[in-house]
Amino acid sequence: MKPANPDSIKKIVTALASDIGPRPIRRPEKLKEARDFIRDYLENLGMAVSLQPVIYKGIEYHNVIASSSGMDPLSRRNKAVLVVGAHYDTVASTLGADDNASGIAALLETARILSSSQLDNVIFSAFCMEEPPVFRTKNMGSYWYAKHLKNIGQELMGMICLEMVGYFSERPGSQKYPFPLMNRIYPDRGNFIAIVGNLKSKDFTLTLKELFKKHSGLPVESLNAPAIMLGIDFSDHWAFQKLGYKAVMVTDTAFYRNPNYHRPSDLPSTLTYEKAAQVVDGLAGSILDLCTPGT
Question: Is residue 1 in a domain?
Fold first, then answer.
């Protein structure tokens, strides 16, 4: 398996954040631009791509759902599948380089690396709406997709949510936590990637963590906790957990590390693309191990 390309990740982040710009729910034309960019990218990889309509206040948005197997990605498989997803919208105040162009870039680079494997049990999903005013509600694009999976009776191995994976810091004290005592257990530098989920998803979290360590030299930490832990379910994995699926978030920890969160300063120039590529290396290798029979 070839390593991820930092330049490819940077180009995707730049296309979304700089070329398209802010992608809030009140700018459906910008979400359409982002949707079309993602769809075209995946189709150019030879993937089968479907647009799932998501209706909010009378306006139609779309999730972009893709599979390298050639099957309709919205159809039911007679086996458990792994869903890998990220949201492509932003709040109005930011270009959203880390939140969440970095997650989409990691999704697309992982899809590129794995496209030749033609895995029929992996679905790549770009969700149209995650940010307020739909945040953590049934109006999220990810909830619409998770509900679709539940309705067709699709079994999942689990869901991996990519939420801000591009900001890293070696500065002492750059990593914060929701509870003070956590800094005695976890690093005080924001130089790692985190895999977090609810208590039901603990085995899936630990499996993914061990596989990630096998395929990437980037430090990785994990945490499973109830929703009282602020931020533990602050992304699209929330929707899958609500519908009973095991789901985790792969993240640079967002506002616990990145001072540019939801601000105009969330720019492509603030990200570390070599480390984002290490995230993709760990992710792609883990997915291949999880989804290839006999491994």
Answer: no
